[in-house]
Request: fold
Amino acid sequence: MTNKKIGIIGAGIAGLSCAKQLLNAGFEVQIFDKSRGVGGRMSHRVFDQWHADHGAQYFTATHPQFVEELQEWILHGVAQEWHAKIVNFCDGQFSEKKHQIKRYVGVPAMTAPAKFLAKNMSVFLSQTITEIRKNQKKWQLVSEESGVLTDEFDYLVFAIPPIQAKKIISQQSDSLSLICEQANMLPCWTLLAYFKEPLGLDFDAALVQDNIFSWIARDNSKPSRVNSHAWVAQANPDWSLKQINLNKLEAEKILLQEFEKISGVASDFNQIQLWRYAKLETPNTQNFAIDENMQLALCGDWLRNSKVEDAWLSGYFLGNKLKKTLIPSD
Reply:
C-alpha cells in the first residue's frame, strides 16, 4: 500500500485503464469527467424507441496485454465478438471484403467495458476541470460546476484530448504542453438514422470510399442490441475537417442526403454528433508522457493511434510507470 493520491481527469478507457493499474498497486485514485457517464468515445445513445453506438463502432485486439484484458471482459459478459458481414463500398457498388479481422464490441452497448472497469472506482461525473492549482506540494482541481474541489493530489493524470489537456496544463508544464500541441486530432461528423422498417441492404457494415462517409453500420447486427433498425454513418476525417464549422442543421441535411443515396430510403428519425477529436492524424509511439518535476502526466489513444486498444494500452503503460516511479523499491 502507498499513501500517494492520484487524480485522473478523463473517464474514458485510457483513464480507467491507468486507474486500474494504480488501484491494484495500492494508490488512492479519484477520476473526474465532464460527461454524465464513463467511456469517452466508447459511447451509446439511448432514445425512446431505439439505441445506437455513436462513437467507437468496434475494437480489435493484437497486443498481448490487451488480449488478456479483453478475455476478462468476455468472461464477465461485457464484450463479445461481432460476427458482422462487412463489405466495401466504392463507386456506388458493394463488394465482398476478404481477409476479415476479428472485431469486438461492448455488450449490451459499447459503454459496457468502461462501466465494468469503473465499477468500485471513485468516479465523479459532470465535473468539467478547468484549472489546476499547486497548494504547497499538493494539487487541487477547479471545476466549472463546483469551483475548487476539496481533495488534494500528489499526482495528476490527464486522459483527455490534447487540446483540452493543453488548456489546463499550459501554465504548469512546458514539456507536456508541447506534446499536446504537436498532436493533431481530426474530427468526425456522425449520423444516427432510425428506420421503422429494415433497409434492403445485404450487409451489416461497409467500409466506404469515394464518399463523404468512411463507415456505415447497422447497429442491431451487434450482439445483445435492441431489435431496432438503427444505422450509424460516420463521415471521413477530411470531409469532417473541411465542414467542421457547419452548424448541426446544415451538416444534418448533407449527411442525410448522402446516406439516402446509399440506403434508398429516407430515415424516420435521426440525430447527428460532431466528435471534434476523433482520430489522430499521424500515428504516435509515445504511449504516455510525464513531467516528473511537476508531478503531471498524459495518457490517451492520441499518444498511440486512436483505437480502443491504444487508449487502454496508453493508460496501462502509464499506470505501470507511475507505480515504479512513486513506490520506492526495496
Remarks:
- The chain is about 25% helix and 30% strand.
